[in-house]
Amino acid sequence: xxxxxxxxxxxxxxxxxxxxxxxxxxxxxxxxxxxxxxxxxxxxxxxxxxxxxxxxxxxxxxxxxxxxxxxxxxxxxxxxxxxxxxxxxxxxxxxxxxxxxxxxxxxxxxxxxxxxxxxxxxxxxxxxxxxxxxxxxxxxxxxxxxxxxxxxxxxxxxxxxxxxxxxxxxxxxxxxxxxxxxxxxxxxxxxxxxxxxxxxxxxxxxxxxxxxxxxxxxxxxxxxxxxxxxxxxxxxxxxxxxxxxxxxxxxxxxxxxxxxxxxxxxxxxxxxxxxxxxxxxxxxxxxxxxxxxx
Length: 294
Known about the structure:
Blueprint: E1 4-5, H1 13-16, E2 20-22, E3 25-29, H2 41-55, E4 60-68, E5 76-86, E6 90-99, E7 102-112, H3 138-144, E8 151-152, E9 159-163, E10 179-186, H4 195-208, H5 210-216, E11 225-226, E12 231-236, H6 239-242, E13 247-253, E14 257-258, E15 261-269, E16 275-284, E17 286-287
Antiparallel strand pairs: 1-8, 2-3, 3-5, 4-7, 4-12, 5-6, 6-7, 9-10, 10-13, 11-17, 12-16, 13-15, 14-15, 15-16
């Protein structure tokens, strides 16, 4: 797996999560444009969500809960979807993703009918954040710091990233609050009319940045572990608003790490400070073979 340089092509989320098939059996091709040491976990979840959306006749996803069971290759995957329970208003679906007989991911998805009536309130204030247009991008900040061509994983070429918490020299950073906060816009398409595609943006945003938040709680050079995700939970609050919002404000925190586990939570707002999605994950620490000797 080789990081790509800045001029690498970007992935299109709608195309790269597309599924074919029917009657509970679907197939997808995992794209290398979403690589972070392997397929990004949120990207895998977005593919599973598309399979659930293809299977149900209900309009929108309400929540996702998945277990990451193996590292997938950038190759075709098979997805089996079955209804666990169905009513007029909601449907529970189980999605199993396999690759050459290996189980890669197991997920549960709730789908609901669009336009349901119910309680309405909002008490989820967004953190203070300047408008994304006024925030320098990662490339702008690196250029200002005298950086040259940046080498990074292909995943990050799919995002216009405007960080609100920035460290010029990540490898020599001091320990800080385990917090990540940034604006993101997906490239080349910022938002999608299809709620099953657009919810994938939110899954990726919730999944990806809890480990960077945890790492920020430790000084550069001090980390001796990485922490792949065991699971991912995401609740979709306002997909009606998200489909009109290209810029996503992501805040991820890691409130606790102990006993080989690293916990994380994340929330996503739009520019009007509407909470679009929230969730969390548990990560499992393991020694980093690339870490310098103590």
